[in-house]
Amino acid sequence: MTAPHGAHRAAAPTQTPPPGTYPSGHAGFAREWTGALWSGPKLPEPSAPELHSPRSLGATMRRAPFWIAVGGLLIGAVLAWVGGSTGSTPNEVVLGVAGLFAVGGPIVALVLGTARRLRIEASVPRVATWWGLAAGVIAVGVALGLESAFRALVGSASEPGYLFAGPAEEFAKLLVPLILLAVGLPWIRDPRAGVWVVVLAGAVFGIFEGIEFAVGSGLHQDKVLGDVDLSGLSESTRHALLTFAGTMGRAWVELLHVMITAGAASVIWLNLARGTRKAAGLIIGMWLAAAALHSFNDGVLTLLPGAGPQFASIVFIVALYTLWYRPLVRRLVPPDALAAVPTRWIPPLPRG
Q1: CA distance 56 to 60
Q2: Residue boundaries of the structural domains of the chain
Q3: Is the pTM of this model over 0.85?
Q4: Phi first, then psi: what are they for 4, rounded to 5°?
Q5: Per-residue pLDDT, 8
Q6: Three-state SS across 48-107?
Q7: Widest CA span of the chain, in angstroms?
Q8: Exposed (0-12), middle (13-18) or buried (19+): which is 78, by Cβ within 10 Å?
């Protein structure tokens, strides 16, 4: 087994590990690393150690993403209650800021955690970050245009609009990254760079949508707590509860904008980097898969009675992270990050 000097160090690298054979993170096995992705079969190597970071609550609490998420949720919760406590006319500015913190905190934490595990700062050019942010802004405009056109076509009924949100929004978030890939920009061919652009596009989209929903949460009780009876509460308490529930519910739901699209993007970019000849079918298939997951949340879970959507969406987000986002994105973790990621983020070995 060969590896460049210093490849086994846990310290942050200064560049992407060069091609070579590296420990896979699984005891007794190595794999080839092309410089951009893991490739080839698993290679028996008795000296290859098991690599992962120790898992502990203390270690998690010492990291910035944890406190960014907690701080955002706490500030957002307070502002959401204050913004709605004015009664039937909620303070939309305060609610917008509440949405920014409540939704932005968890999303930024997810983005930073992903960047650390994929060694984005060390391996992806800074231009990718700017393109990712721009892609998110463009995606918002594209999705708004598509959804407005769809509502004009079918009317203002909620159910068809919720179902269409999945295809429209997943298309919008993938649009710019795929255009950059199609025009042949060299840096975006790297799977980590491509997925990073998509992660940021999803983050921007999710934060924007979270703010939008937070601002409207006090005006649409049927979309927040359904038919839950709040008649026994004072007007100010009732509206404060609505804005609180509506805003904090979006804090979890909006994570799907990163998780769903980035998971699909990881499959697309890895297969394209391996030279698949079915690029169009692959892209369409992953877009449809992402759209189906998205529409399940928007068009099925949101129609549950009472406060059901709030609780069901939390369960959905946990399942989405466990069964979709982490299993797909962890395939991008490079050799020099293996000792610094949790066990479940170690790339899987190929079968056989």
Answers
A1: 7
A2: 68-345
A3: yes
A4: -60, 150
A5: 40
A6: CCCCCCCCCHHHHHCCHHHHHHHHHHHHHHHHHHHHHCCCCCCCHHHHHHHHHHHHHHHH
A7: 71
A8: middle
